[in-house]
């Protein structure tokens, strides 16, 4: 098993030494092994840091991460984001979790980029909104101007809304209406309707994600082949061949 000094472990995990020590002070990372005045970490510490990073990216709060780490330490299963009651967030909680001011979140919501979910007693936010806001920030931090990005996003949002409305219309006519005529009890009909809706959402989202990212990747490839330098073309080809450049789509 490999061993690391604190600086090496932090670099390998992609975090600062200060953040690593903060995790350790909160009990999220176990203490290192000491040899005299030297502190040594190993691959178990690295795995723990990667687990924490993964949970943060999935929108887990610090309290949820602490619970997940405890479950991982005792050998019990870490619950996935689709298991158990979903955490519901207010706008203020979303701002705290994503580190984006509420005023900017309201602006994103008004533009249609951020969309609260409709719950039984009103709108709210979930971990999916945290991930979406963080992804948007990563795009903007990469150099994309907000105004021009919103212009492109507006086209995509309008098209996506049309697809969503059409998909729901098909669902209501060809899935729900036959269920209503099937003679099932109201409870069984309702359960089958919800299960079919879940399948439709997952299937439609998977197909849209697949097609959109393939279109973007192919368009980028053509643009770099046409306008890029020899080094850029070679780098992109290596990336496509050697790495999973596309977002993994759940089966």
Descriptive labels:
mainly alpha; Multidrug-efflux Transporter Regulator, Chain: A, Domain 2; 3 domains; three-stranded antiparallel beta sheet; two-stranded antiparallel sheet; 10 helices; globular
Structure, briefly:
The chain is mainly α and 251 residues long. It has helices at residues 6-13, 17-25, 43-57, 62-74, 91-98, 102-111, 127-141, 146-180, 186-227, 230-242, and strands spanning 3-4, 33-35, 38-42, 117-119, 122-124.
Q: Would you give an account of this structure?
A:
By secondary structure, this protein is mainly alpha-helical. It folds into 3 domains: 72 residues, Multidrug-efflux Transporter Regulator, Chain: A, Domain 2 (Orthogonal Bundle); 58 residues, Multidrug-efflux Transporter Regulator, Chain: A, Domain 2; 106 residues. 67% of the residues lie in helices and 6% in strands. The protein is built from 10 helices and 5 strands, in the order E-H-H-E-E-H-H-H-H-E-E-H-H-H-H. The strands form 2 sheets. Strands 1-3-2 form a 3-stranded antiparallel β-sheet. Helix 8 packs antiparallel against helix 9. The longest helix is centred in the C-terminal third of the chain and has 42 residues.
């Amino acid at each position: 098993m490999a061993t690391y000094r604190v600086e090496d472990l932090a670099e390998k995990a992609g975090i600062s030494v200060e953040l690593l020590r903060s995790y350790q002070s909160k009990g999220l990372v176990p203490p290192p092994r000491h040899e005299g005045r030297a502190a040594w970490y190993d691959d178990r510490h690295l795995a723990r840091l990667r687990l924490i990073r993964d949970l943060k990216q999935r929108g887990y709060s610090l309290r949820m991460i602490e619970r997940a780490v405890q479950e991982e330490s005792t050998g019990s299963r870490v619950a996935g984001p689709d298991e158990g009651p979903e955490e519901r967030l207010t706008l203020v909680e979303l701002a705290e979790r994503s580190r984006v001011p509420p005023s900017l979140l309201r602006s994103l919501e008004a533009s249609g980029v951020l969309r609260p979910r409709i719950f039984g007693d009103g709108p709210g936010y979930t971990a999916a909104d945290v991930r979406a806001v963080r992804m948007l920030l990563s795009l903007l931090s990469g150099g994309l101007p907000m105004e021009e990005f919103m212009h492109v996003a507006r086209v995509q949002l309008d098209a996506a809304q049309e697809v969503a409305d059409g998909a729901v219309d098909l669902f209501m006519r060809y899935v729900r209406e036959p269920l209503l005529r099937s003679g099932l009890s109201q409870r069984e009909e309702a359960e089958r309707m919800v299960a079919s809706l879940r399948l439709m959402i997952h299937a439609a989202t998977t197909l849209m994600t697949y097609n959109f990212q393939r279109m973007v990747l192919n368009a980028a490839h053509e643009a770099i082949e046409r306008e890029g330098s020899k080094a850029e073309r070679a780098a992109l080809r290596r990336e496509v061949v050697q790495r999973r450049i596309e977002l993994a789509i759940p089966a």
